[in-house]
Request: fold
Amino acid sequence: MKAAVFPRRRAVSGYEAAANTRRTTGWLPLTSDINTLVFRSLDTLRSRSRDMVRRNPWATNALDAFVGNCVGTGIKPQSLHPDPATRERIQRLWLRWTDEADASGLTDFYGLQALACRSVAESGECLVRLRPRFPKDGLTVPLQLQLLEAEHLPTSENRRLENGNYIRAGIEFDRIGRRVAYWLYREHPNDTSNPMASTELVRVPADAVLHLFRPIRPGQLRGQPWLTQVLVKLHELDQYDDAELVRKKTAAMFAGFVIKNAPEDQIVGEGPPDSSGTALAGLEPGTLQVLLPGEDVKFSTPADVGASYETFMRVQLRSIAAGIGITYEQLTGDLTGVNYSSIRAGLLEFRRRCEQFQHQTIVFQFCTRVWRRWIEAALLVGALEKRGDLAPYYDAKWIPPGFAWVDPLKDIKAQIMAVRAGFKTRAEVVSEQGYDAEAIDREIAADNARADQLGLEYDSDPRRGQATRQARPNNEDPT
Reply:
């Protein structure tokens, strides 16, 4: 008896997204790793992203909104050294140094934070050189920072070295995969106005370079611009909006058209024909034109952009805002139909992303490494006195700028209730607003001492304001 023979069936995927069907015809995504994809396209993505930021108001506003919320006036350190006197000395010294931090002398340390954050968003990454200085340079601490654009680190530099190390996209790694150096151009390779520009590569040790970027996949070596997912949409939407503007402008140039009985007939306001033989006529207020039998005037009725224009633009801009990671209102400034609850819900999600980038990228890749190198330089030249264990000198808490709400009264009441219930400390509340709790306490103490010395009494003084209010009969006006 022969065994039954069944026809062979073509292998079918158990997942619709992996099946080869009519709906997925032509969908052949690349299987390359993230570095292969980025290295191959990074220069083009970076140039197109910068071009869009230069020309497109939505792209510019998106970057400004993110940098303003993420960095604002600066992510500031608070020393955690256990000795109050040493802690005060560190804070005063740091405050003086922040004005000297920029090697170009154009901004302070917190301005460098904002510039680095903007460069990461616009170009995908930013390089920071830690530049030691001589004591004779007269700096508070002999250290400055130099920001470099990503072009200083070539993606085309890939080779193996004789010592066993290897270079990938300009970054040198040792045999166990640690970053040991960066191969940088001395000058910007695309700066055609610089007579000192050259293509010479210089090996800079990794401990003197900070490489800032937001990794999106494990093993990623270089960053990609944040506008990558929406560059094409931004480009085409900008062209569409300009085309609508030009169409309306062109249509509005003609007020009407006159139909004559004969070409030689003249109408009021008609001038001599132009070089192309076209006769033009103008109208003034109060003009009465008598037409001959058979003559007619047809007024221009240009087509409107249509009721769907606003809806279409809004939907497209919402898609762009989602791709960048900000809210539609931040991208466009359009607050139509927004209420307190809806804008707060949107901002909460956005601010979670800001906090993630603040702590995982700006603080970890930039601030903490600058702080450690600054402490080492300050101790080396004697700007800070060495006392006991040096480990506490490096401990610091970085405080981002506080987020303001539309209705701060509700938030202040919520903070008061949280402190009174023991859910958080007063110092934590002050830190969330971007301030140093110890500095606030010193200012309050100084204000109270000055008021007591001058015999002043304020309702806002928590030491006596409540008692004063209760002593007044029938809520008497304090004045």
Observations:
- The mean pLDDT is 85.
